[in-house]
UniProtKB/TrEMBL annotation:
<feature type="domain" description="D-isomer specific 2-hydroxyacid dehydrogenase catalytic">
    <location>
        <begin position="17"/>
        <end position="313"/>
    </location>
</feature>
<dbReference type="InterPro" id="IPR006140">
    <property type="entry name" value="D-isomer_DH_NAD-bd"/>
</dbReference>
<dbReference type="GO" id="GO:0051287">
    <property type="term" value="F:NAD binding"/>
</dbReference>
<dbReference type="GO" id="GO:0016616">
    <property type="term" value="F:oxidoreductase activity, acting on the CH-OH group of donors, NAD or NADP as acceptor"/>
</dbReference>
<feature type="domain" description="D-isomer specific 2-hydroxyacid dehydrogenase NAD-binding">
    <location>
        <begin position="110"/>
        <end position="280"/>
    </location>
</feature>
<keyword id="KW-0520">NAD</keyword>
<dbReference type="InterPro" id="IPR006139">
    <property type="entry name" value="D-isomer_2_OHA_DH_cat_dom"/>
</dbReference>
<keyword id="KW-0560">Oxidoreductase</keyword>
<protein>
    <submittedName>
        <fullName>D-isomer specific 2-hydroxyacid dehydrogenase, NAD-binding protein</fullName>
        <ecNumber>1.1.1.-</ecNumber>
    </submittedName>
</protein>
<dbReference type="Pfam" id="PF02826">
    <property type="entry name" value="2-Hacid_dh_C"/>
</dbReference>
<dbReference type="InterPro" id="IPR036291">
    <property type="entry name" value="NAD(P)-bd_dom_sf"/>
</dbReference>
<dbReference type="Pfam" id="PF00389">
    <property type="entry name" value="2-Hacid_dh"/>
</dbReference>
<comment type="similarity">
    <text>Belongs to the D-isomer specific 2-hydroxyacid dehydrogenase family.</text>
</comment>
Length: 318
């Protein structure tokens, strides 16, 4: 009998029911709350671990029988990669599990930035009647997605009725359904020069860290809009602040940051053209159900020795 440890609930109060379902598949099921996680001796026999960041509190070497880690997140920076590779432990992520709410978040922020909604909210709070003639239309704008994975694809679906030109940047310039044209990452500077709105949807790898530095930000139109929904480290925050101080960019929406939570000392809080949310774009009432559907399907496949969904490529970083 395979043994599985879950350290993350499903936000819907059905944990006991779902433990029973997994037991019917042939598993011995354990549950520990990750927020209060402590290592226990039975864990040495665990075959599979469903978690987010257990290894911030426990040593992977204390799980000698572990063969598979299923993450609740898309990113896997929290996994001890060297040990995972050495022991040939399979890692699967929650790719696609949060893409719908994140796609909605992208569309929301495109509209909020281009319609200058932050100023409108401030006017309302101050009971100030002000007709804002600086607002623009989304129609016919060029929107570039840097990264054409699930988040970008779900965003593009929701932008299909706006009459916009959708550009995509990926590793090799391969065509992606829904995008008007795609380019290789080698052509990113040319894409930035012609784009009105830039949306970052990249994984965090050695190659993408600080991809948006001073030099790259300067490739963007002076009145462009920048949105980051992926990983904070892709933008150099110091360079972004300096770029904004120079009067560049019409608006910026950030949901992720180099270090979270964002320090209260960060200048980003104080710049009017910046909209900040607290890594909140992935959250919706559906995340528990989608997480469970993936876990169940993969646990069913695992017990039957079938290929798992969402196996990550540790060496490549995604």
């Amino acid at each position: 009998m395979k043994k599985v440890l879950l350290t993350y609930g499903f936000e819907d109060g059905k944990m006991e029911e779902r433990k029973s379902i997994l037991e019917d598949l042939g598993y011995k099921v354990y549950y520990e709350d990750e927020s209060t996680f402590e290592y226990k001796s039975y864990m040495k026999d665990i075959d599979a671990l469903m978690c987010h960041s257990v290894f911030k509190k426990a040593d992977i070497n204390d799980f000698p029988s572990l063969k598979w880690i299923q993450l609740t997140s898309m990113g896997f920076e929290q996994v001890p990669k060297e040990e995972v590779l050495k022991r040939n432990i399979t890692v699967t992520n929650n790719k696609g599990g949060y893409s719908i709410p994140m796609g909605e978040w992208v569309v929301l922020n495109i509209l909020e930035l281009i319609k200058n909604r932050k100023s409108a909210y401030q006017n309302q709070m101050n009971k100030r009647w002000y007709m804002d003639f600086s607002v623009k239309e989304v129609y016919r704008k060029k929107i570039a997605f840097i990264g054409t994975g699930d988040i970008a694809k779900e965003s593009v679906k929701r932008l299909s009725g706006f009459g916009v030109d959708i550009l995509g940047v990926n590793t090799d310039g391969r065509d992606i359904n829904g995008f008007d044209k795609c380019f290789s990452i080698d052509d990113i500077d040319d894409v930035l020069k012609e784009s009105d709105i830039v949306v970052i949807c990249l994984p965090n790898t050695d190659k993408t860290k600080h991809l948006f530095n001073k030099e790259r930000l300067c490739k963007m139109k002076k009145d462009a809009y920048l949105i980051n929904v992926s990983r904070g480290a892709i933008i150099s925050e110091d360079d972004l602040v300096s770029h904004l101080d120079g009067g560049n960019l019409k608006g910026v929406a950030l949901d992720v940051f180099e270090k979270e939570p964002l320090s209260k000392k960060s200048r980003l809080w104080d710049i009017d053209r910046v909209v900040i949310t607290s890594h909140n774009s992935w959250i919706s009432e559906m995340i528990g159900e989608r997480r469970w559907n993936l876990f169940y399907e993969n646990l069913k496949r695992y017990v039957n020795d079938e290929e798992l969904l969402n196996v990550v490529k540790i060496e490549k970083g995604y």
